[in-house]
Design a protein that fits this description.
heterodimer; A: about 375 residues; alpha+beta; Butyryl-Coa Dehydrogenase, subunit A, domain 1; Butyryl-CoA Dehydrogenase, subunit A, domain 2; Butyryl-CoA Dehydrogenase, subunit A, domain 3; 4-stranded mixed sheet; B: about 400 residues; 4-stranded antiparallel sheet; 10 strands; globular; flavin adenine dinucleotide binding (chain A); Acyl-CoA dehydrogenase (chain A); flavoprotein (chain A); Acyl-CoA_Oxase/DH_mid-dom_sf (chain A); acyl-CoA dehydrogenase activity (chain A)
Chain lengths: ~375, ~400
């Protein structure tokens, strides 16, 4: 057993933490969030220059071949700063699909601009009637001439409004819920037949509902083989969940720090409110919740290469804990801040919103608890049986 | 980063497993797995088996007979012992008073008491709590008055776990009632329980068990050489004892073994034609607890790893105590629920059992384990420690 970071991981962590500490204060974040795309193009360029956009991609794709630990280090740092740039959507989710599905020539073509930050991608997977189920895909892909025609609707696509390209998960055979018959198509987000309704999300990001109506794509838009995208999609979603758990860890750690500072400085009845035992114990409970999330996230991140049932179980456990313990921390933070916790101008309110709403991205605690139970009961990959 | 055991760690695990398979009597393991009380002889036997192997005092320095294990090895040992159904080791001698003797005791105390712990010639009890001194331990009143080369001890200790079997007890006593602060007038004495004036009376707990006692001291003579360290410095030693090697405090191995057993029950026991595991509310609760336990396990490992890297567990042990005891209590709660109406019969151990085997102990064990969040510094006291030590409140 070895719980320490390698030198490279340590350097990556220092770099991300320094970037967030030096250049990502709450006001900067709020200004970026208020812009039309919902994040800072300058910051995105800087991520690219620092090499961050290539961290989880393979060397084949021009990336750094980072694993779960690297993903965790980046996401935790971003979580501390409530980073709003589309790292999860473009780099983690789409990056993995491109890596796993595109052939070598296409991979270089597509991944190059991703890693350099010129092109931003979004994963159009979940659908309005599918809830948390990534396999509940009714969107169809029909072969037509040399290419394909896509029809369907995608729900709450993270950063789908600002993305240059979408990776659309569509079905050429089977029924919603089936794992077989799914393919990934690279689609120009401004193409004919693609309609995007962009909007802000309550946790500081942006998303879009996307309609594909008779959207035509060329044959080379298909990434990988027709109907065989599921296992790559599993991998992308697993990494996405680990990213979200680590982001939640960072955000929860910062929320605990902010709350602790407030307990020490806010005075009532002539004393800092942190001198009251009722509040001290609640603060300790927040820290205990944080440690649980940190431990399970760590375990999940270190399990990306483990056997499918163990991996599925640990990733699901982490997301369950993020949903439950995260909510505890966020609600308590608001409570301990009192009226200030209710204010839009308070940073803590934004931490609380992001921590709680992370439960709604890529499967909530109920969804993952069901996946956990399946993994435990059947000894199979929770994701593989998710439907 | 690598959360898997490496080759030497796996080899060590296999060695422990092999030793347990050969040396742990099946009858004892059976009792432990079913939450049955062990006899004094059974407990002593197991301690002697480990003592002979050199594995009894795992936290001791090697010069005194410790095995020289890394924190990860200690973790593996505890986990394997729990999984095999080995009796939990008595902490009072080897893990509590021994570190104090090693750190603050005289050479004569080390030479005499430590070897006797390894051979289990002494059964130690802890004399901390008093009727008026629980969480506020420093307000203890048991008096020790110096008369020449002896102390005359008068007063009472309580919650003395397994004191009915013990022949030695370490006590915090008040040697200076006039001290400015109540923490300053306390000394640390080793008392032979066969001394005239010592009386042990059973306290029966709500599960019907005789596990704890009250111990009365009526003009008990204790030689001055039985004092550990300096007079009136006992509080320092008491605090040292409480922070010493507490990564085992989470009881992860025990919880894992209990949860495994509970899952087996859930897969076997049928109610109205459906196995418990197929009943969604029960299965949900079981999964919820398993997720909690995974979080405790990994937190424990993180602390173990930090200790391995040279960090000394301080207030982290308070985190582990709270997290570990909460999850153990939740498991015992679900056992009780799994038993349904058969949690009710309260049958003497010698009588013919009623209902499924696990059910007979489900409720008594649940009630017994309420103690976990109370003893060893109540969980509220642990939260006070964390607020002060880590949060700076």
């Amino acid at each position: 057993m070895d719980f320490s970071y390698s030198d490279e991981q340590r350097m990556l962590k220092d770099m991300v933490d320094r970037l967030v500490a030096d250049q990502y204060d709450f006001e900067t974040r709020e200004a970026a969030r208020a812009s039309s795309v919902g994040y800072s193009a300058d910051m995105w360029r800087q991520f690219a220059e620092l090499g961050l956009l290539g961290v989880p991609l393979s060397e084949d794709a021009g990336g750094f071949d980072g694993g779960g630990a690297e993903l965790m280090v980046v996401a935790e740092g971003f979580g501390r700063g409530l980073v709003v740039e589309p790292y999860l959507a473009s780099v983690v989710l789409c990056g993995h699909l491109i890596d796993k599905l595109a052939d070598q020539t296409r991979k270089a073509e597509i991944a190059g601009p991703l890693i350099s930050g010129e092109t931003r991608y979004a994963l159009a997977c979940h659908e309005p009637d599918g809830g948390c189920d990534p396999y509940w895909i009714a969107t169809t892909a029909r072969a037509d001439g040399g290419g394909y025609v896509l029809d369907g609707t995608k729900a709450v696509v993270a950063h789908g409004d600002s993305a240059d390209h979408l990776i659309v998960i569509a079905r050429s055979s089977g029924e919603p819920g089936d794992r077989d018959g799914l393919s990934a198509f690279l689609v120009d987000a401004t193409a004919n037949g693609v309609t995007r309704r962009g909007y802000p999300t309550i946790d500081g990001h942006r998303a879009a509902d996307i309609t594909l109506e008779n959207a035509r794509v060329d044959a080379d838009a298909l990434l990988g083989e027709l109907g065989l995208a599921s296992s790559a999609l599993d991998g992308a979603l697993e990494r996405g969940v680990i990213y979200l758990c680590a982001e939640a860890t960072g955000a929860m750690a910062r929320a605990c720090e902010l709350t602790l500072e407030y307990l020490k400085e806010r005075k009532q009845f002539g004393a800092p409110i942190g001198s009251f035992q009722a509040l001290q114990h609640r603060m300790v409970d927040m820290r205990i919740a944080l440690e649980k999330v940190r431990s399970l996230t760590f375990w999940a991140a270190c399990s990306l290469d483990s056997a499918p049932d163990e991996r599925g179980q640990r990733i699901a456990a982490a997301k369950v804990m993020v949903g439950r313990a995260g909510r505890h921390v966020a609600e308590e933070a608001i409570q301990l801040f009192g009226g200030m916790g209710m204010m839009e101008e308070s940073a803590i309110a934004h931490y609380a919103k992001r921590i709680i709403m992370i439960d709604h991205w890529l499967g909530d605690h109920r969804w993952h608890m069901a996946a956990f139970r399946r993994a435990v009961a059947d000894g199979e990959n929770a994701w593989a049986n998710a439907a | 980063m690598d959360i898997e055991y490496n080759e030497p760690e796996r080899a060590f695990r296999d060695e422990v497993r092999g030793f347990l398979a050969e040396n742990l009597p099946a009858a004892i393991a059976e009792k432990v797995k079913n939450y049955r009380r062990l006899t004094r002889d059974e407990t002593v036997h197991w301690h002697r088996v480990l003592g002979e192997k050199g594995w009894l005092a795992m936290h001791w320095p090697t010069e005194y007979g410790g095995p020289g294990w890394s924190p990860v090895q200690k973790h593996i040992f505890e986990e394997e012992c729990a999984a095999a159904g080995a009796p939990r080791l008595l902490p009072f001698g080897i893990n509590m008073v021994a570190p104090v003797i090693i750190k603050f005791g005289s050479q004569a105390q080390k030479d005499y008491y430590l070897p006797r712990m390894l051979t289990m010639d002494d059964w130690w009890a802890q004399g901390y709590s008093e009727p008026g001194a629980g969480s506020d331990l420093a307000s203890l009143k048991m008096r020790a008055e110096r008369q020449g080369d002896r102390y005359i001890v008068n007063g009472q200790k309580t919650w003395t776990t397994l004191g009915q079997h013990a022949n030695m007890i370490f006590c915090l006593v008040r040697t200076d009632p006039q001290a400015a602060k109540k923490q300053e007038g306390i000394s640390f004495l080793l008392i032979d329980m066969s001394s005239p004036g010592v009386t042990v009376r059973p306290l029966i707990t709500l599960d019907g068990e005789h596990e704890v006692n009250e111990v009365f001291f009526d003009n008990v003579e204790v030689p001055v050489e039985n004092r550990v360290g300096d007079e009136n410095k006992g509080w320092t030693y008491a605090k040292y004892l409480l922070t010493f090697e507490r990564t085992g405090i989470a009881g992860v191995g025990i919880s894992k073994a209990a949860l495994t057993h509970l899952k087996t029950i859930a897969h076997e026991r049928e109610i109205r034609g459906r196995r418990l595991i197929e009943q969604s509310d029960f299965a949900d609760r079981l999964a919820e607890i398993e997720v909690e336990l995974m979080a405790v396990e990994m937190t424990n490992l993180r602390v173990v790893a930090a200790a391995d890297a040279g960090g000394v567990p301080g207030a982290e042990s308070s985190f582990l105590k709270i997290m570990g005891t909460e999850v153990r209590q939740k498991i015992s709660d679900l056992y009780r629920e799994a038993a349904g109406p058969y949690a009710l019969p309260f049958i003497d151990e010698d009588d013919a059992p009623v209902g499924p085997e696990f059910a007979g102990v489900a409720a008594p064990n649940y009630f017994n384990l309420r103690k976990l969040s109370i003893f060893g510094g109540s969980n509220e006291i642990q939260k006070n420690i964390i607020s002060k030590a880590i949060l700076g409140l």
